[in-house]
Amino acid sequence: MRGAVFLGNRNIEVRNFPDPTPGPGEVVIEMKASGMCGSDLKFYRSPPGEAQKSLGFSADADPFIGGHEPCGVVAARGPGVSEKEAPIGQRVMDHHYAGCGVCKHCRVGWSQLCKAGITVYGVTAHGGHAQYLKVPARTLVPLPDELSFVEGAAVSCGTGTAYGALRRMNAVGGSTLAVFGQGPVGISATLLGAKMGMRVIAVETNKDRLNLAKQFGAEHALTPEAFEQQKKDLTRGEGVDLAMDTTGASAARIAAVRCAKTWGTVCFVGEGGDVTINVSPDMLRKQLTIIGSWTFSAMGQAECARFVVDNRIDLEKIFSHRWKLDQVDEAYRVFDQQSSGKGVIEF
Ligand SMILES: [Zn+2]
Ligand SMILES: [Zn+2]
């Protein structure tokens, strides 16, 4: 089979690999759509292995196939996997992490929190930018019939991550939510937040992405500078109920902390980097809640898919670019500009 590997320093190459055969407990997914997530840019841009290290993962010496938003159909089952568990031809997403499979975190579907060491498909092991992907059968999440493979890919990280963060923030309708960054995760938070009945203020430096945010339900879409000037007026001087940072940039993180009102909640979703918080004025004097949110559980992924179906959200719209595997170099060059909507590789 053919698969795209990140070689580091903005080099990506399609290479030949042997077709995977499923071992005990494993299945092979025939890929139909493999999404491009904002965090893929870390692997694309940095020297080989550096991004993994900065995210706290081990880095293998061998280049592996990228893509952690895989969506396709079950193509083969290994020994011990029942027909009921993974029917051939079933439309599936993948919860793209594998842990030990038996600890308390793994058993409730939060395998990425496993303390025994985890595999992240597309990050520390072969991922979805290939014709086939071998994963444990227990990582499969059925794709509702109403969703396309492309939409399933979005739910598999970017949109699912936004959904998981909103749920963790106890977001309720009627609240004012500021979303920093309008990349694939941020634009999903805008879209889902608006659907949940929140008043969304999207904050983003790129003009095209600000326009997208408006289309996806943001009441206001502002540059960071404009937001600083207008935030008082927009919130009657109180600040926002909820703020989410999807950028990982220090400036956006501290802006999220400072724009939240007394008793407000701030959620950090963007990966890497750091932030300096002046604890007394920024947190204590405001009774502020600051939380981190890392993607979602396998059940949360299924729930996000259900939410998209039940609320008739057209997730296809967040994709501005569709590519074939052979175009992967161009696909990441375009994505690297961070000015477009989401990209996906279709098979
Ligand atoms: Zn475990
Ligand atoms: Zn991701």
Word description of this protein:
This protein has 347 residues and is α/β, with parallel strands linked by helices. It contains twelve helices and 17 strands. Strands 3, 4, 5, 8, 9, 16 and 17 form a seven-stranded mixed sheet that branches. Helix 5 (158-168) packs across helix 6 and helix 5 (158-168) packs across helix 11. Bound molecules: zinc ion (2 copies). One zinc ion binds next to helix 3.
The major beta sheet can be summarized as: 7 strands, mixed
Helix count equals 12
| Terminus-to-terminus distance | 12 Å
Question: How many β-strand runs?
Answer: 17
Please give the share of residues in helix: 25-40%
Hey, roughly how much beta strand do the residues contain? 25-35%
Q: Which ligands occur here? A: zinc ion
Question: What is the mean pLDDT?
Answer: 96
List the helices and strands in order: EEEHHEEEHEEEHHEHEHEHEHEHEHEHE
Which secondary-structure class do the elements indicate? alpha/beta
From the alpha carbons, calculate the radius of gyration and give it in angstroms: 20 Å
- Poorly predicted regions are none
Query: Any idea what the shape is?
Result: globular
